[in-house]
Write a structure and sequence with these properties.
This protein is an alpha/beta fold. The chain has 15 helices and 14 strands.
Length: 408
């Protein structure tokens, strides 16, 4: 490329760059300029219209890691600069999709060199996908929602597989790409989903035996500002069930001793997990101040309060974690910077929203009736696992493509 040609291409790149104020810090990403280094190893590149549509990607990465017995890295490129779901943001790289100019596309693909590309929904980037296909990158399309499209973008003809949301969508794809070597199947749409948190199953079984069917509720990742609110809620619910146990997981584990003293001075019988205490029958408040055990507590508690939602601390836990493990979800009005998962649950009546400690206590008391907790938990579980089969099929196709192309 001559200097004049390069300069013209560069000017064309810049003409596309009209970032909104919210995109200013990431504006040069539109030109294909990476703001982060590429990690070593296999990189799965996911393109979506927005951050919500990319919510299921961690489940895919975990499924691939299981199938191939090795780690994967994930790059999420989106049209909008909305924040990713916090759990996804912690484990995936996030870049804006480059504009449709040769220079921007080339810079993006040269830097990231993805091993596999996945388009969630129809993303209007034909030149980007054509360039990726020319480089031999295996590409896959999966529907993000049900649609009534009568035609799909021609670039999907370069993809290895297209997973349709409905039978009608599959027929359109098969008619349109009958002369192309594209695998077309119906799986349903890929909606936001999550993998269940793991736990020590033997220890979980032992604790379940110790609890012996005792009524339990969990307050998970409770911020310092919420401690008194949770205490008020437990006191209210305790009036209706004198064997009720509160398992409290502090957001700041180092605060556990102070939290215990707080509850002790208010007359509660407490125990501290870090000191080797067990939730014996006489314990009323069990402070679980050890790391990476939320998966176990969600399994043991039929009802879970999502910490951070009754204060304006900003950092909020993921409501899909308890829901995916069959625990009925309670939360407050403050949903953090990426509230989509809360909205998904609320839209399907898969969670209960409260505003005060009194309301939280009343909700816990209401859910002590097993049928009510089970109904709420069942709905929440259905929302969080709706796309599990889509994730599994997509992972199988990607796994086969990596074998075929000799990757990792």
């Amino acid at each position: 490329m001559s200097r004049l040609t390069y300069a013209a291409s560069r000017l064309k790149d810049l003409s596309f760059l009209r970032p909104a104020k919210a995109e200013a810090p990431k504006g040069t990403e539109r030109l294909g300029q990476a703001s982060q280094p590429r990690p070593e190893g296999c990189l799965i590149w996911v393109t979506a219209e927005n951050a919500v549509e990319a919510g299921a990607i961690l489940s895919l990465v975990k499924e691939l890691s299981f199938l191939r017995e090795g780690p994967f890295h994930c790059l999420v490129s989106t049209e909008t600069n909305d924040p990713l779901v916090p759990k996804v943001a912690r484990e995936a790289l996030h870049q804006l999709v480059p504009v449709e100019t040769p220079g921007s596309v080339e810079r993006f693909l040269n830097h990231w060199a993805p091993d596999v590309g996945i388009s969630i929904g129809v993303v209007d980037r034909p030149k980007l996908f054509a360039a990726a296909a020319d480089r031999g990158i295996p590409l896959f399309h999966v529907a993000a929602e049900r649609s009534e499209r009568r035609r799909f973008p021609a670039y999907l003809g370069e993809f290895r597989a297209c997973l349709a949301a409905s039978a009608a969508e599959m027929r359109v794809l098969r008619d349109q790409f009958a002369d192309r070597d594209v695998t077309i199947e119906i799986t349903g749409p890929l909606t936001d989903t999550t993998h269940a948190l793991s736990c020590n199953e033997a220890e979980c079984d032992e604790l379940a035996k110790l609890l012996g069917g005792r009524p339990v509720w969990l307050a998970a990742d409770v911020h310092p500002e919420e401690i008194d609110i949770v205490e008020e809620a437990h006191r209210r619910a305790f009036r209706a069930a004198h064997r009720l146990l509160l398992i409290l997981v502090p957001r700041v584990l180092e605060d556990a001793a102070d939290i215990r003293r707080n509850f002790d001075t208010k007359g509660w019988r407490t125990a501290l997990r870090s000191e080797g205490d067990e939730p014996d029958p006489e314990v009323q408040v069990y402070i679980a101040d050890t790391e990476d055990e939320l998966g176990m507590w969600y399994r043991l508690a039929p009802t879970s309060f999502v910490g951070g939602t009754l204060c304006k601390a900003g950092d909020v836990s993921d409501p899909f974690d308890p829901a995916a493990l069959g625990s009925a979800v309670l939360h407050g009005p403050h949903l953090g910077e990426a509230p989509a998962r809360f909205f998904n649950l609320m839209a399907m009546n898969g969670s209960m929203r409260v505003s005060t400690g009194e309301e939280l206590g009343e909700a816990v008391q209401t859910l002590l009736a097993s049928d009510k907790a089970a109904s709420l938990a069942q709905t929440g579980w259905a929302v969080t696992t709706e796309s599990a089969s889509v994730v599994e099929r997509l992972a199988e196709l990607v796994d086969a493509a990596l074998d075929r192309d000799g990757e990792i």
